Automatic annotation (TrEMBL):
Keywords carried by this UniProt record: Plasmid
Native species: Sinorhizobium meliloti (strain SM11)
Gene: repA5
Keyword Ubl conjugation: no
Protein name (Swiss-Prot/TrEMBL): Replication protein RepA
Residue ranges occupied by any HTH merR-type domain in the UniProt entry: 49-97
Lineage: superkingdom: Bacteria
Sequence ranges assigned to domain AAA in this UniProt record: 126-280
One Pfam family here: MerR_1
Length: 425
């Protein structure tokens, strides 16, 4: 008897088999109920600030702030040993609102939130030590009373981890920025993935391993001949527009120019801050990244869109002031970049490194935790940078610069770095 021959089945392609396995594994993890949301096992808290620290943050005298407390004006501080007063960041922001009302001529100084007609500032931070730079920038902005949204476009979630959202390798579903970027039916509003931080006025949209899927989607479009889908990069723009009224500044971190997510950050941005380590090999790497970046911008322009940034600045980070070669590299950078290079420079600091090991910033630690001298020296450079960036934002909004001059009067702000800048203000 002749054997019956089964009709030939189309052989499953290798790529399809791998993708099917990936989907099966991911679906099984989801079905088990594991890590459906971001793990946050140790909620982070922010210390209170002494009366002296609050006076410096607000730019008022200690005696004036103490008298407000005595008169029962503004929020009631906590009284510690020997009657020492301290304020939470929420109370500092309440003080800002009170002072802006009581002293309307200084309202912008005390309460810097966007006014009508001032556009949301979206800053893309990239380069060497960019995650740490963004970390200190968003916290510094929050301490100065700005409403800030941090966006992590790193699939490793390094930026998110600094705020306690450690889900870089744990499967999550639609709980990261990917939810607002994806192009299928599961795309969600960015509102669903915004998370609070322990800094009043500072929220974050975490990054996670989910972002690998977005990179896969971009690769598929590229291989299919659609090298640039106009909608792909504009999704982040649309997502931010949903919550524009809730924030003054958005800071995007974790998206290297060479990464598939680089164009997403660059198209959404109104301003760019490029960090560079003052060594020739890092400068060469920065130059290469800028060349790639220029190609992205060219494609955006060819698509009929204008990419006119409000500012495009460079920042020197991790500088050892005793290193002669680094000093020469900074001179090279300043000679090439001119005013596009920030006056402020972030010095290499054991204090910053120690805080990083603790998953904290120096703003979250007291001077005694790292040593007063190291603490104050590090804070000088960090506050100088943040002050300069905030004055750039003020300039974009048509306001007079106040932050560099205010920082120069502070005992924990950039004295040496502010001096040259102050002479121009």
């Amino acid at each position: 008897m002749p054997q019956t021959v089964s009709p030939p089945h189309e052989k499953e392609r290798t790529s399809e088999r791998i993708r099917r396995r990936a989907k099966e594994l991911f679906d099984r993890v989801r079905a088990s109920g594991v890590a459906i949301d971001f793990p946050f096992p140790d909620p982070m808290t922010l210390r209170s600030f002494s009366l002296g620290e609050v006076a410096e943050i607000l730019g008022v005298s200690h005696s004036y702030l103490r008298q407000l407390s005595i008169d029962g004006l503004g929020p009631t501080p906590e009284l510690g040993t020997a009657g020492r007063r301290s304020y939470t960041l929420r109370q500092i922001n309440e003080l800002r609102a009170y002072l802006a009302s009581a002293r309307p001529k200084d309202a912008l100084k005390f309460y810097p939130r966007r006014r009508e007609g001032e556009k949301l500032q979206i800053i893309s931070v990239g380069g060497s030590a960019s995650t740490t730079t963004a970390f200190y920038l968003v916290q510094g902005l929050a301490l100065q009373g700005f409403r800030v949204l941090a966006v992590d476009l790193d699939r490793r979630g390094s930026f998110s981890g600094m705020f306690g959202y450690t889900a870089s390798t744990t499967p999550v579903y639609n709980k990261s920025i990917y939810a607002a970027l994806r192009c299928d039916d599961d795309r969600a509003s960015i509102r669903t993935v915004i998370r609070p931080t322990h800094f009043d006025g500072l929220d974050i949209v975490p990054g996670s391993i989910e972002l690998r899927r977005f990179e896969e989607e971009r690769l598929r479009r590229y291989l299919s001949g659609a090298s640039r889908n106009p909608d792909a990069n504009s999704r982040l723009v649309s997502a931010i527009e949903e919550v524009e009224g809730n924030y003054d500044v958005v800071v995007i971190a974790g998206a290297p120019v060479r990464d598939g997510l680089g164009p997403v950050a660059l198209e959404a941005a109104t301003g760019v801050l490029v960090t560079v380590h003052p060594q020739l090999d890092d400068v060469a790497s920065t130059a290469m990244s800028l060349s790639i970046f220029s190609e992205y911008v060219r494609r955006i322009e060819e698509a009929g869109k204008s990419e006119d940034y409000d500012f495009f600045k460079f920042l020197v980070t991790r500088h050892d002031p005793r290193d002669v070669a680094e000093q020469e590299t900074i001179a090279l950078l300043r000679g090439s970049l001119g005013d596009d290079l920030l006056t402020a420079i972030v010095w290499e600091s054991d204090a910053i490194g120690y805080a990083g090991l603790k998953n904290r910033s120096l703003y979250e630690l007291s001077a005694g935790a790292v040593g007063r001298s190291a603490y104050e020296q590090a804070m000088e450079t960090l506050n100088s940078v943040n002050a300069e960036v905030m004055d750039i934002i003020s300039e974009v909004w048509g306001r007079p610069p106040i932050y560099v001059s205010q920082a120069s009067r502070s005992t924990t702000a950039g004295k040496a770095k502010s001096r040259s800048k102050r002479s121009r203000s």
